[in-house]
Design goal:
The chain has 15 helices and seven strands. It is α/β, with parallel strands linked by helices. The chain has three domains: 21-198, P-loop containing nucleotide triphosphate hydrolases (Rossmann fold); 204-272, no CATH class; 275-344, Arc Repressor Mutant, subunit A, CATH 1.10.10. The strands form two sheets. The chain has a five-stranded parallel β-sheet, with helices on both faces. It has a two-stranded antiparallel ribbon with strand order 6-7. The protein is globular. The relative contact order is 0.12. The chain binds adenosine-5'-triphosphate (ATP) and magnesium ion. Adenosine-5'-triphosphate (ATP) is lined by residues 7, 10-11, 14, 17-18, 20, 45, 47-53, 144, 175, 202, 233-234, 236-237.
Length: 347
């Protein structure tokens, strides 16, 4: 059916969006404040939790403002040259302004012959100074950052720009495991100190309300749907989309099967493949636990407390498990237990 208000595609702002007001206001408020305390934020969280969607909505907020230049950099490309050419769209300056950079360019925009990192850093610095003169702030948004050479080099220069009080703000998204690898690398003190915003699940109540209004289902049915998706944004979209297309308001066996296979294809398979063999063992033990108690899980794994703790911390940090209740563990993602049990059949 046409006009499905849900999307199963990652990375684009969905029509049925549940705003993350707190995080949104925190970041925009900080960047807009007279004297910003933090020069950047890192949005982290498990695959499909809505990092790109949040970053995009913040980017759009600043794009609408005359006081901001917004750059969206691809971490797989040379970040300096991308930043220069994107800033060039805002700052079409004359060649002589940057002769100190010793680069042959006919203005900051189009047709830039870029030389080396150091040249590019110098050009970028000059452009940021020019932005400062014009009383503009520059937002640098990087989606899916990881410990690549490009990011490390850029972060290093970025730190220097901040030290020079240039008006530049960094907004990055990263999977928790990628961000720890990046921030634990050499010369990454600056990144380590950036405040992190770890996205948790969407509120069950907001999910329920959204289903009620978009799918026109009863409160009771909307509550059941909300419980099923457990606040996981990707599952919220998938389930909504399946129900809309099938014109159903309850989840039957067929629909649940479709949901499971789409969760697997779009997210869980990749999560699984990025676990170490040891982590897979731990995750499997959790999925077979009946009491969900740490004691039972440890004993199935024959692990002492000190052996088990690092796994528990890591899985929790990466957004896979919930350890809020003392002595208990549960999966944070909907249908993940069933997914793991299914995966075991193919091992
Ligand atoms: N606030 C939200 N309200 C409703 N749906 C959302 C929200 N945020 C994200 N989604 C949906 O969740 C899915 C994943 O979103 P997104 O691509 O932002 O995740 P991500 O965290 O960037 O994932 P990845 O780590 O794989 O890049 C998309 O289908 C998106 O429409
Ligand atoms: Mg993303």
């Amino acid at each position: 059916m046409n006009n499905n208000p849900f999307t199963t595609i990652f990375g684009i702002e969905p029509q049925s969006l549940i705003p993350r007001k707190e995080e949104y206001n925190k970041i925009t408020g900080e960047f807009e404040s007279e004297v910003p305390v933090s020069p950047g934020y890192v949005i982290t969280g498990v695959r499909g939790c809505g990092k790109t969607v949040l970053m995009t909505s913040i980017q759009n907020h600043f794009t609408k403002s005359d006081n901001w230049y917004v750059l969206r950099l691809n971490p797989d490309l040379d970040l300096f040259s991308s930043a220069i050419s994107q800033l060039g769209e805002y700052l079409p300056l004359k060649e002589e302004r940057i002769t100190g950079a010793n680069a042959s360019i006919a203005g900051f925009g189009g047709g830039i012959a870029l030389r080396s990192f150091s040249d590019n850093e110098t050009i970028l610095r000059k452009m940021l100074k020019e932005a400062d003169k014009r009383k503009k702030r520059v937002l640098v948004a990087i989606d899916e950052a990881s410990g690549t050479k490009n990011i490390k080099a850029f972060a290093h220069s970025y730190q220097a720009f901040i030290g020079e009080k240039l008006p530049v703000f960094l907004l990055m998204t990263a999977l928790p495991e990628n961000f720890s690898a990046l921030s634990n690398s050499k010369n990454a003190t600056f990144l380590r100190r950036l405040p992190k915003i770890k996205l948790s699940g969407l509120s069950n109540i907001l999910v329920e309300e959204k289903y009620r209004s978009v799918l026109s289902v009863t409160e009771e049915k909307a509550v059941a749907l909300s419980k099923l998706v457990m606040g996981y944004p990707y599952a919220f979209q998938l389930l909504g989309s399946l129900l809309w297309d099938a014109q159903k308001d309850v989840v039957d066996k067929d629909l649940l099967n479709m949901l499971d296979s789409m969760l697997c294809e779009g997210s869980y398979q990749a999560i699984w493949e990025h676990l170490t063999e040891k982590e897979k063992l731990v995750v499997r033990a959790i999925s077979h636990s009946t009491t969900m108690s740490v004691r039972e899980i440890r004993s199935a794994l024959q692990m002492e407390s000190n052996q088990f703790s690092p796994y528990r911390e890591n899985l929790s940090e990466n957004g896979l498990i919930n350890t809020d209740t003392y002595g208990k563990i549960s999966f944070s993602l909907p249908r993940f237990k069933e997914f793991v049990i299914r995966m075991e059949k193919y091992m």
